[in-house]
Every structure is written in structure tokens, then in C-alpha cells.
Amino acid sequence: MATITTEAPAAVPVAATRAPLWRRAPAGLLFVLPFLLFYLAFLVWPTLSAFVLSFFNESLTGTRGELVGLRNWTEMLGDAAMWSALGNTLYFTALSTPALVLTGLVMALLTNRVMPMRWLWRLSFFMPFLLPASVMALIWVWIYQPGFGLLNAALTSVGLSEQGWLSDPSVAMISVVIATLWWTAGFNFLLYLAALQQIPQHLYEAASIDGAGWWQRLWSITLPLLKRTTGLVIVLQLLASLRLFDQAYLIYIGSGGPAFSARPILEYVYDTAFTSFRFGYASAISSFFFVLIVVVSVAQLKLFPSRREDAR
Amino acid sequence: MTAVPAPRRPPQATARAWNAAGLVVTAVIALLWLTPLLWAVDTALKPESDTTRIPVTWWGAFTFDAFRKVFAESDLARWFLNSTVVAVGVTVLVLLTASMAAYGFSRTAFRGRRALFGIVIAGIMVPPQVLVVPLFREMLGLGLVDTYWAMILPQVAAPAMVFILKKFFDGLPRELEEAARVDGASPWRLYWQVVLPLSRPVLAAVGIFTFILTWNNFFWPFLAVSDPDLMTIPVGLATIQSSYGLRYAQIMASAVLGGLPLLVAYVFFQRDIIRSVAHTGLSGT
């Protein structure tokens, strides 16, 4: 707790009152101030004002709408489109989270060993993560085309039937999951790879001397030591999946997919705000969703206390 | 050793079999992961009339027409410039403000420091996507819609970066600062001339990560800007599907060019980028 000692204001009252404000403020506060201004203006204020807005019937016209109390919130609770969009987001999260975590783990386990052309394997796993969402969407829309699309061509060439990847309501969200798996598995892969490289090599050597095979070493050394990382990766992935917007919006060019089957809740917020111009109602939905995310975040803090867990 | 008959296969052979199996599985997954990119490049190099031909082929006529048309007709160069301005602007501002704040929280004392740090940390939980409506309203009020500022300013509020930098500063030995302070250095000089030079690796990690996130960010710039002259690469590319109609070779050529800058950067800074993403990604929570 070493501290920077500034002049105690009480000791030099005359100088202190005459000095400009920025000289009298504690130096530490001045260091924090620039960030704080950005933080207050673009994070704290919008968060609070979303809650406030949700009680008004405001539209894009700029004039503050009238106070409507809880009407936005009660309307939302009875809004079938909102629930179906929330359902879409949860469906995407339930499918994508295990797939993305497992794929990242498998990729890391495979390439954390000495092998020929390791740089190439690692490069191909991670590269898609560096692409903007719009590039990823353009490529996958092309792949998902009927007839001349690569995926359907591959299916028919092995005797399977074509799928309406972009047109069948029961498949539309799965297409988003597959594209997302390809796009961001590389991120989880890197997190796992970094964790694997932290495992001391002598543990494996000791196990080899005891005659443990690859499989045994995986189950009794590697996976137990990856427990904490896995907790972290799951939580990060869960929160990232819940925030689905970019891919779904871009793949279906804002249409929400066939029969809105691929419209996540954040896209419904966007549609409500910027197509129907109902800012107040959109704020109610996003505040509701925000509370949901905070609940998940707090639950993860309770489930995976990140710092004192090292003993396990 | 040789006298004892081995009950199972010798461990050497088993290990070799596992290694070979691992290599095959790795190669198959890698091929799956490379295919979409290769297919995009392949399509971009076809004449437009060949792209929708059935059955699908990888090999056929070869032309740079699509790339030539994209260069001639699209605003890709302009979008590239805009992306650079926004990503560099955000990265510089994040590095400066977040490292200053982290220094303040790590090395100075003022009333309410702990409480304030707690409030900043709580912000990590706020998903920026839920803020778009009030943020857009705020930008309307400030008259910043359709400016670079509208894209840059909100992305500077990155509490996770303050957290990462503070953790690093906390671990720096204080002896050097003590020595400089005895010599009469001001807190600003301690920060600028002692702490920052010691923090190059973490600053690079935070900077690279911020740059990648900002470069690829879609949702907020898409809302903040509708003037085609101000669009970033992700926002501009989102408009081409409707404007190009069904010209797939041209669409894929744009996609390839749009994804290229970061991939090229990756080839040059592979080590730094991997370290940055792994480090920042893990400690960001």
C-alpha cells in the first residue's frame, strides 16, 4: 500500500485554495479521470438511461415521449415475438456452447504435441476468428446455397438429400450455429492451448515412467488440470453466445430468417428500435435481457470463483 | 528386458500409432476448417458464369475479372481507410486512458479509490450490444451520428482492459519507482518513464486485442454510420450482398479482400497475436 504523498491540504490552506482545481485534486484521481469520463458517458449513462427509457413511450422523433409507467414491460411479457426471439437466442446458446467448447478443447489437445506441420494446423484453426462477421456471413451464405452451394453439392454427391440451410425454419438456426462454430472455435482453441502449455512437462514424464498411456495421461493429468480453464471458457462462450446478433443478422440480411426462426432477441431489439422506431419498448426488452445476462454473470461468479480455486 | 515376452504391443509402437492417428484427425479437421476459405478464393477466381454451374467444380476457367471489377467499382479502399482510422483511434485512446486509470488504481491513493475500481469492474459485465438504443439516442443528441467520433468514442470505454493492466501493474516491483521518487519525479513521470516502459508486453497484448476487436466490430459502427464514405470494412461488406445481386465471384472477391488485412497482419505478427488473444481473453474475466 505504498502511496504517493501529495501535500496535505490542511497544512497549506492558502496555497490550496488559490491553486487551480486540477492541482488540488489528488493525483490518482487525475489519472483515473479520462477513462472515467468515457466510462460514464458511454457505458454507465446508456445503461441507466435504457432503464429510464423503458418507462417512456419514446420514438425516434426525438421528443421525449410520455411516461407510460410499466406499460412497456407488461406489453413485453405478453409479446409472443419477444418470447420466440428469446427462445431463438437460448436455442442457439444451448447448441453452440458445448460444440464450441469441445471443438476448441479437441483442437488444442491435438496440436499441443510435436507433430509435422503444426504451424499449418494451428493457423487453419485460428484463421477464421480474424475475419469480420460480414466476411464470414458472405462465405457461408454462398456455401449454403441450394444446388450450386458447396454444402448441398457435397451432400448430394454422397447420396444424401439437400437441406434448405437458409430456407427451412427448422434448420435456419442450425446453419448459424455451424457457421459460428467454424468462425470462433479458434478463440477457445487458443485459450485451451495457452492453458495446456502451462502444464509442467515433468508430470507427464513421471506418468510415462509409471507406464501410463496417452489416454490415461489425458484423463488423470490433462483434463483435471484444465478444469479451471474449462470453467472460464464455458462462461465466456455462454456470454458470447447469448449476445448473438452479427452472424444471424448478416446471414439473413436482417430478415430474421424463414418465419423469423433465426431472429435472436438482440435483433428483435434492433427491429423494434430502428424499424418500428419504438425506442421505449426496445429499451424495455434490452433492459430485460440485460438483467438476464447479469444473472448469468453473477451465477458464474458463484459457480466458478476464479481466484481461490487453485487448490483444486 | 528383451528376455521378458511383452504381453502387449511395445510402448514405442503404441505411441507411434497414437501419433499417426492424431495427425490424421488433425489434418481432417484442418481441411474442414480451410475449405470455406479455399472455396471463397476459388469462387472469386472463376468467371461469373461458372459460379452457379451444376455440378460444382473446383477446377475450371481461371480469371482475375472479379477482383478487377471489385477494385474498379467498390469502395473497398475507402472502407479500409475508415477501418484504419477507427481501429487506430480506439486503440490509441484505450491504451492511454486504460493504462492511466490502471496506474491510478494500482499506484496512487485517493478517497473512494476501491469503490471506484469496483464500479469500473462491474462494467465488464455490461454487454455493449444491449446499449445500442440509448447510445444511438445519445449520439443523436450530441450531433455525432455519421462521424468517426460516433464509432470511436463508445469503444474506448473498455473496463476489461483497465482490469488487465491494473493486474499487471500490481505485480511490478516498486523499487524502481521508489528510486525515481526519491529523485523528485512527479507521479506523471513515474507513470510515463518508469511504469510504461516496463509494461511493453502487456501494452502490446491489450493493444493488439483492442485493434482486432475494433477492426472487426460490426453492430455499433453499423448503427452509428449510414454515410457510405464513412463505413468500415465490416459495415461496407454488409451492404454488398444486396447491391451485387447474384454475382457470386464478385461477392467472394470482396469477402476475400475484406478479410485479407488481418490475415496478412497475422502472418507477420503470429506470435504476438496468439499471445495477445490468449492472455487478454483469459484474464479479461
Automatic annotation (TrEMBL), chain A:
<keyword id="KW-0813">Transport</keyword>
<protein>
    <submittedName>
        <fullName>Carbohydrate ABC transporter permease</fullName>
    </submittedName>
</protein>
<feature type="transmembrane region" description="Helical">
    <location>
        <begin position="279"/>
        <end position="299"/>
    </location>
</feature>
<dbReference type="InterPro" id="IPR035906">
    <property type="entry name" value="MetI-like_sf"/>
</dbReference>
<feature type="transmembrane region" description="Helical">
    <location>
        <begin position="28"/>
        <end position="56"/>
    </location>
</feature>
<feature type="transmembrane region" description="Helical">
    <location>
        <begin position="90"/>
        <end position="111"/>
    </location>
</feature>
<dbReference type="InterPro" id="IPR000515">
    <property type="entry name" value="MetI-like"/>
</dbReference>
<feature type="domain" description="ABC transmembrane type-1">
    <location>
        <begin position="86"/>
        <end position="300"/>
    </location>
</feature>
<comment type="similarity">
    <text>Belongs to the binding-protein-dependent transport system permease family.</text>
</comment>
<keyword id="KW-1003">Cell membrane</keyword>
<keyword id="KW-0472">Membrane</keyword>
<keyword id="KW-0812">Transmembrane</keyword>
<feature type="transmembrane region" description="Helical">
    <location>
        <begin position="123"/>
        <end position="143"/>
    </location>
</feature>
<keyword id="KW-1133">Transmembrane helix</keyword>
<dbReference type="InterPro" id="IPR051393">
    <property type="entry name" value="ABC_transporter_permease"/>
</dbReference>
<dbReference type="Pfam" id="PF00528">
    <property type="entry name" value="BPD_transp_1"/>
</dbReference>
<feature type="transmembrane region" description="Helical">
    <location>
        <begin position="171"/>
        <end position="194"/>
    </location>
</feature>
Automatic annotation (TrEMBL), chain B:
<feature type="transmembrane region" description="Helical">
    <location>
        <begin position="20"/>
        <end position="41"/>
    </location>
</feature>
<keyword id="KW-0813">Transport</keyword>
<keyword id="KW-0472">Membrane</keyword>
<comment type="similarity">
    <text>Belongs to the binding-protein-dependent transport system permease family.</text>
</comment>
<feature type="transmembrane region" description="Helical">
    <location>
        <begin position="115"/>
        <end position="136"/>
    </location>
</feature>
<keyword id="KW-0812">Transmembrane</keyword>
<dbReference type="Pfam" id="PF00528">
    <property type="entry name" value="BPD_transp_1"/>
</dbReference>
<keyword id="KW-1003">Cell membrane</keyword>
<feature type="transmembrane region" description="Helical">
    <location>
        <begin position="248"/>
        <end position="269"/>
    </location>
</feature>
<feature type="transmembrane region" description="Helical">
    <location>
        <begin position="79"/>
        <end position="103"/>
    </location>
</feature>
<feature type="domain" description="ABC transmembrane type-1">
    <location>
        <begin position="80"/>
        <end position="269"/>
    </location>
</feature>
<protein>
    <submittedName>
        <fullName>Carbohydrate ABC transporter permease</fullName>
    </submittedName>
</protein>
<keyword id="KW-1133">Transmembrane helix</keyword>
<dbReference type="InterPro" id="IPR000515">
    <property type="entry name" value="MetI-like"/>
</dbReference>
<feature type="transmembrane region" description="Helical">
    <location>
        <begin position="190"/>
        <end position="213"/>
    </location>
</feature>
<feature type="transmembrane region" description="Helical">
    <location>
        <begin position="148"/>
        <end position="169"/>
    </location>
</feature>
<dbReference type="InterPro" id="IPR035906">
    <property type="entry name" value="MetI-like_sf"/>
</dbReference>
